[in-house]
Amino acid sequence: MSRLRLGRWLVAIPMSLLALATIYPLLFTANVAMKTRRDYILDRFGLTDALRFENISTAWNSVGMGRYFVNSLFVVTVSVLLLLLFGSMAGFALSQLRFRGSSALFLGCLAGLFIPFQVIMVPLARIMADTALIDTYPGLILVYVAQFLPFTVFLMTSYYKGIPPEIVDAARIDGSTVYGVYRRIMLPLGTPALLSVGILNALFCWNDVLMALVMMPSADHRTLMIGVTSLRGQYSDNIPTFASGVLIAAIPVLLVYLFLQRQIADGVAAGSTKG
After folding, report:
1. Domains of the chain
2. Which of 135, 176, 194, 268 is deepest in the core (most CB within 10 A)?
3. C-beta neighbour count of 165 within 10 angstroms
4. Helix (H) or strand (E) segment spanning residue 16
């Protein structure tokens, strides 16, 4: 029993420290958001003496956070729907359909995971400008789909490979077309993976700053994360207001993690299935 307790403590102590290191930045941000500018300058790390929500109201109204929030919600929703559609189709084809070149195509999708956006940022911006897609919602949505589609295809292919191919063969013998098998069988069976991948992609798109900054130079089309960065300029340094903006942008992500943590964990583990 003593060895068992010692083993539990050896696991609990590092995990507790890791949890504290994860939670502390959020608590620090919330504490700073409740301070006045004077209180923050005098004591940056001290606890606030009162709950002040004026900074949150100022951050929401000063740079048009409401408009940026709607922009992010629209872009993320459309991007995730397209990613789930194309990713599930590609995953079904690469895992269950037998055609020449499927392995090479899958490896090509995997190669896309190793190409950072910074490498293709300049040529992509030029292509988008030449095609009049810069500073447009369709342009940013296309960039999100192209950037996160390899990840979606990888997870959906790994998940669909765990489904017995006899199910697909039986449906084909019964007269179902490839589209019928995908719509009536693979989509319902892939609902857990689709939910997990959809949540992860939504978090990726919501938290993005660089791609949105390159594709959306106009202030009217900015996303929420770009709006948060505009709260702190070269000649303005109101840290409590900036922390309030960070808190506003983090609340949807925190809610997703709080209520859908099991689905997120399943999505992270989806790529570990056999195949």
Report:
1. 69-274 (1.10.3720.10)
2. 194
3. 13
4. helix 2-33
Give the DSSP letter string of 118-155.
Answer: HHHHHHHHHHHHHTT-TTSHHHHHHHHHHHHHHHHHHH
Find, among 151, 143, 139, the residue nearest to 84 by Cα: 151
The two three-digit tokens of residue 26, written as one number: 């959020």
Amino acid letter for position 162? G
- Give the residue from 52, 63, 60 showing the smallest Cα distance to 30: 52
For 153, the token pair is 């295809």
Whole-prediction pTM: 0.85
Checking if the pLDDT of 162 tops 70, the result is: yes
CB neighbour list of residue 218: distance below 8 Å, 6 or more residues apart: 135
SS3 call for 60: helix
Q: How many CB atoms lie within 10 A of CB 80?
A: 25
Provide CB contacts within 8 A for 40, sequence distance 6+: 32, 239, 240
The first and second tokens of residue 54, run together, are 């004026």
Query: Each residue of 117-151: pLDDT tens digit?
Result: 888 999 998 999 899 999 999 999 999 999 999 99
Residue (of 203, 200, 165) closest to 185 by Cα position: 165
163 φ, ψ (degrees, to nearest 5): -85, 130
CA-to-CA separations, 136 to 23, 223, 244, 246, in angstroms, rounded: 36, 12, 28, 25
